Amino acid sequence: MKHRQSDTPVVSQTELEALTALPRPVFGSAQGLPNVAIGHRHTHQWVQLSYAIRGVIEVSTATGRFVAPPHRAIWIPARVSHAVRSAPDTEIRSLYIDPDAVACHPACRVLVVTPLMRELIRTFSELRVEYDEEGSDGRLVRVLLDQLAAAPEADLALPWPNDRRLRKLCEELQAKPDSRKSLSNYSRQMQLSERSLSRLFVQETGLSFRRWRQRSRLLSSLPLLERGERVTDVALACGYESMSAFVAAFREQMGMTPGELVAGKT
To answer: Which helix (H) or strand (E) holds 151?
Structure first.
């Protein structure tokens, strides 16, 4: 698709927050500067789709942590309090969508960005803010919304528990992905049986202890890989005993190897 240069200046975050209504059902612009993410908790009246064509985006909410490498995007529903972090040199394309324009994805989640969706997002980011809704630009937007509604979900979300004891445990696991502490270690620390702790994990997060920990480790590996660190070093830093074990777990979760992710393959 041919990209058209926008004749409207990039809108700043301050100007965005001052808007009482979007000029069109879908609003967005190209943001190519590093560290444009907003690290403090905030909300929008509109749905937000954050997609990085380069780098890794991380969104945190009260209910979970959501991480998107290239070829993935984070869907943030309207009025959900969230904070965004990004790796250095991340190039973000953010879309803001009128909730009435799309009836899908009621919760925050990570979506798979297909090649068609990627080109639609890139093309849209170059349109005028007040694009012609009845012309070809409007048709492009309608196709984009259809693609977003049908986009499959990627398992790159880490659900947070409400239980205070379990939340403290999960915070430790996330802060120390290379920790070797086992479920039995934590059960003794929390004065619970292993069975009770296992049941609590599933009740609170929908994942087993092992699955939650594996996903946390894999999410922790994504920014390191994007920074260009060696796969072996990343594997050890994230708690894997060998590179082969890391590659196997990564392929199972991501559908690709760490090397393919870095190379930009889908």
So the answer is: none
CA distance linking residue 121 with residue 160, whole number of Å: 30
What pLDDT shows up at residue 3? 38
Nearest Cα neighbor of 207 from 75, 65, 60, 68 is 65
b/e sequence 80-117, b meaning 16+ C-beta within 10 Å = bebebbbbeebbbbbbbbbeeebeebeebbbbbbeeeb
| pTM: predicted TM-score of the whole model, two decimal places | 0.83
Tell me how far apart the alpha carbons of residues 145 and 117 are, in angstroms, rounded to a whole number. Answer: 9
- CATH architecture of the region 162-263: Orthogonal Bundle (1.10)
What pLDDT score was predicted for residue 126? Answer: 82
Local confidence band at 52 (pLDDT 50, 70, 90 cut-offs): confident
In DSSP terms, which residues pair with 48 in a beta bridge? 76, 96
Per-domain residue ranges of the chain? 13-154, 162-263
Give the integer Cα–Cα distance in Å for 44 and 201: 31
CB 48 within 8 A of CB 95: yes
The CATH architecture one would assign to domain 13-154 is Sandwich (2.60)
